[in-house]
Amino acid sequence: MIRPSSPLPPGQQLAAADKWPTVGERLPAQGDDPWTVALSGLVAQQLALSLAEIRGLPWVESAIDIHCVTRWSKLGTTFGGVLLRDVLALARPDPSARFVSFVARSERSHSTSLPLDEALSLGTLLALEAAGQPLDTLHGGPVRTVVPRRYFYKSLKWLTRIELLAEDRLGYWEGQAGYHNKADPWLEQRFIAPSLDKRAAAALLTTRDLHGQEVLGLDASGRDLTGLQAAGAVLRNARFAGATLREAVFDGANLALANLSGADLRGASLRGAGLDGVDFTGADLRGCDLRGALLTAATFCQIAADGAPIRGAQFDATTRIDEASLAELMPQQREFIGRQTHG
Ligand SMILES: Nc1nc2c(c(=O)[nH]1)N[C@H]1C(S)=C(S)[C@@H](COP(=O)(O)O)O[C@H]1N2
Ligand SMILES: [Mo]
Q: Are 313 and 281 contacting, i.e. CB atoms less than 8 angstroms apart?
């Protein structure tokens, strides 16, 4: 077992100290019923705990590092709450329970799961406070789970049910977005394998028309895809490293975590695209339109040990990018783009 030498796992960058990006759903489902957290499934005693009952359990404060799969990290947020272990003890889990599924009170009944022994040994928290304040609704208040040492998609906002299971049940991001079910940031367990094999991907790409399509983990590295039509496409985790994408159209597409390093994007249109966590290092962005794009933790240059930018993307006066998109970037990336575009 190699011990992590840095608090920052590979491929992650630090968010600005005062920033906590929101990822995924932004609101719980509406409802007038008082908030409860139900314990169900393989337990001796089914229960529905009120927030006051949860607060009555031993209170824990713990500084936890957040690592989002979209490549931003936020170190040392102090969460206040109670341990999953203490909550579960009230319901007496059956020995046959091997997985725990957390379910949200949200429009899509969002969920995520973990092996039960792992959830317990990692010190999973039901958090009601962050930095000494009640948890914001935006960040999962009144109660969310926080799972240390896993990508943050394992930490569920607006917890309303804890279900103990004999077999795993994949959560939303794991089942629908191709995120890895183990989610260890030090092993970079971000994605499961691409859903398309190489031949199927090649056949699809020869049409140069992906608009509105959903393709997880597409590999188009090094290909000539000049004029590709991909407006509104869902292409999370796609690999376009070194590809020619001149005049390509990705308006409104979801390219979260795509690899566009070294890609030729001259004259391409990425208006309103979801580009969180995208790697643009060494890409040619002259004449490229990035207005309205979501750029949280997108990478435009690598930073050398001495702090100098290396392998930066190319910008010029015809690159279009707006303030709102720039504001979402990590500080060093914003500085790099500022230097490029202001001479
Ligand atoms: N209910 C719910 N929980 C969720 C999500 C979601 O979409 N819905 N997104 C997950 C993801 S991908 C991340 S990175 C974190 C983001 O939490 P934050 O918005 O408080 O930063 O919540 C996780 N929990
Ligand atoms: Mo995430």
A: yes
